[in-house]
Design brief:
Largest sheet: 4 strands, parallel
Order of helices and strands: HEHEEEEHEH
Number of strands: 6
Strand content: 25-35%
Helix content: 25-40%
């Protein structure tokens, strides 16, 4: 657990040290199921933001909005509570791994649908052989 807290702190410190958030108040941090739930809350606590889980279908109670996306082996879906994010709210997105980028793009689309301003996306591991950075080279979010 201490290692995860240290990593989460280092991930956020890296963002602060590069001044990507220096002039931006972040209202919420979104963690993608399931390991985004491990890294997200310590960062949210550190920056004083609320934590919002982005979950697989039918795991959240109440009304949800959803975004379907394509995987290399089929399709999947992310869901978020209706009203969890306000229009114009500044948001960070955290996940454990970026492979093809499908899940992260679905998270971004879900947040954009409700009018959130995505400040940055952070992933612990990138699979460089899949060249995701090439696909998203023009985005300042990664």
């Amino acid at each position: 657990m201490i290692m995860l807290q240290c990593f989460s702190h280092a991930l956020w410190q890296n963002s602060k040290d590069t001044n990507r958030q220096s002039d931006k108040l972040v209202g919420s941090l979104k963690g993608i199921e399931a390991r985004g739930f491990i890294f997200g809350p310590p960062i949210a606590l550190e920056i004083g933001a609320k934590f919002v889980p982005l979950r697989k279908p039918k795991k959240l109670p109440g009304k949800v909005i959803s975004e379907e996306y394509v995987l290399e082996y089929g399709t999947d879906c992310l869901e978020m509570h209706v009203g969890a994010v306000e229009p114009g709210e500044r948001a960070l997105v955290v996940d454990d791994l970026i492979a093809t980028g499908g899940t992260l793009c679905a998270a971004m689309k879900l947040l954009e649908c409700v009018g959130a301003d995505i400040v940055e996306c952070a992933c612990v591991i990138e699979l460089p052989d899949l060249k995701v950075c090439v696909l998203y080279a023009n985005s300042s979010k990664f």
